[in-house]
């Protein structure tokens, strides 16, 4: 009797579920691909000499409860306003004070979509890369919202993401995926195929051009200070590259990042700031290396399992040549999407939190860990 019970238990509770799982796996049409070999490299050259690995120790929180997932941050120096896009469709303005308790949050314009990247046009316009709407121009102090472009080469944007503006007024932006929309973005990363594009829009000619195709979740983009090239991020392969505007040459900027890059912002002191929503964990490394693990994760996600476990988020400071300078992160931090340096402070947006995070870089600097 005990042996009969053991065989029956083995059959119904182990063998049958295993056979069902194998069948479901083979029938599922989700087909992840191998990532480029160089994207799996863990490079020590991307780790800077200066590190603050206790980001949350000195962090302050701005607009608690009033900013619903403020993804990107753009600072308008003349007015002193911070502009940020929230998951509820609002582009909000924040007047920041020395004390975070004195900061004022204003509901400015609701796009009716999901504003992600934010930049300023030549005449004070606010340019918004809206994940669902496309590229928007908000002018007249918020009174007019105009759709600039929503497709290129006959392919509609599925996930308009980052945007930057050149001194001649041309807008450069990314469509992270032409296949998956924002609420499906995890499937794009898990599939491991290049659905992203880098594009330009000329406000004078109204022409949208595709500059680069076949990018791996094209994310943040920033104009170089000399206006000769762009630096753009590809999230799942932990790489940032340069795109030279004259000639279209592509050159590696930095790879093997300690996390998965989101937005990249240039600061006027010769540095870029690269935000990373998650560090590289063992689970992430295995998933990126083995497509079958990503397929299993995607199958679980279809039944409500959250596939994108994130931890150890942070912001990496990098010089113009792609050399890492300082890294601000924390094991308990996640979903950091933007890092913007304003004065002595680093301001961070997020896909998870209901506030902007601020860190005083003078009080809580990155230090040489080798000392």
TrEMBL record:
GO terms for cellular component: endomembrane system; vacuole. InterPro entries: Strictosidine_synth_cons-reg (IPR018119). It is found in: Vacuole. One of its GO terms (molecular function) is hydrolase activity. The chain crosses the membrane at residues 7-27. Keywords: Glycoprotein, Membrane, Phosphoprotein, Signal, Transmembrane, Transmembrane helix, Vacuole. Residues 161-247 form the Strictosidine synthase conserved region domain. It comes from the Eukaryota. Pfam families: SSL_N, Str_synth. GO terms for biological process: response to jasmonic acid. PANTHER family: ADIPOCYTE PLASMA MEMBRANE-ASSOCIATED PROTEIN HEMOMUCIN-RELATED (PTHR10426:SF88), STRICTOSIDINE SYNTHASE-RELATED (PTHR10426). Belongs to the strictosidine synthase family. This is Strictosidine synthase conserved region. It comes from Arabidopsis suecica.
């Amino acid at each position: 009797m005990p042996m009969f019970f053991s065989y029956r238990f083995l059959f119904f509770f182990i063998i049958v579920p295993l056979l069902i799982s194998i069948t479901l796996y083979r029938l599922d049409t989700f087909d992840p691909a191998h990532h480029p070999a160089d994207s799996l490299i863990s490079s020590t050259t991307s780790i800077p000499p200066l590190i603050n690995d206790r980001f949350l120790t000195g962090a302050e929180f701005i607009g608690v409860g009033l900013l619903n997932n403020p993804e990107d941050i753009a600072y308008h120096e003349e007015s002193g306003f911070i502009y940020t896009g929230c998951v509820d469709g609002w582009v909000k303005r924040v007047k920041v004070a020395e004390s975070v308790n004195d900061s004022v949050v204003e509901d400015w314009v609701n796009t009716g979509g999901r504003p992600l990247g934010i930049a300023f046009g030549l005449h004070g316009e606010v340019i918004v890369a809206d994940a669902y709407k496309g590229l928007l121009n908000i002018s007249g102090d918020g009174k007019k919202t105009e759709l600039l472009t929503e497709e290129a080469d006959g392919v509609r944007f599925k996930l308009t993401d980052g945007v930057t503006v050149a001194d001649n007024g041309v807008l450069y932006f990314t469509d992270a995926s032409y296949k998956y929309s924002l609420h499906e973005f995890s499937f794009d990363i898990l599939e491991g195929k290049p659905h992203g594009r880098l594009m330009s829009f000329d406000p004078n000619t109204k022409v949208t051009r595709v500059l680069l195709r076949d990018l791996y979740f094209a994310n943040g983009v920033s104009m170089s200070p000399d206006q000769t090239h762009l630096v753009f991020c590809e999230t799942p392969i932990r790489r940032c590259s340069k795109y030279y505007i004259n000639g279209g040459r592509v050159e590696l900027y930095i790879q093997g990042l300690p996390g998965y890059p989101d937005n990249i912002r240039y600061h006027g002191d010769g540095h870029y700031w690269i935000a990373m929503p998650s560090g590289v964990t063992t689970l992430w490394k295995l998933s990126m290396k083995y497509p079958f693990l990503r397929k299993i994760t995607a199958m679980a996600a279809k039944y409500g399992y959250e596939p994108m476990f994130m931890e150890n988020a942070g912001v990496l400071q990098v010089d113009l040549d792609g050399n890492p300078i300082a890294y601000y992160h924390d094991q308990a931090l996640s979903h950091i999407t933007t890092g913007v340096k304003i004065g002595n402070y680093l301001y961070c947006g997020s896909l998870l939190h209901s506030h902007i995070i601020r860190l005083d870089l003078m009080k809580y600097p990155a230090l040489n860990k080798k000392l």
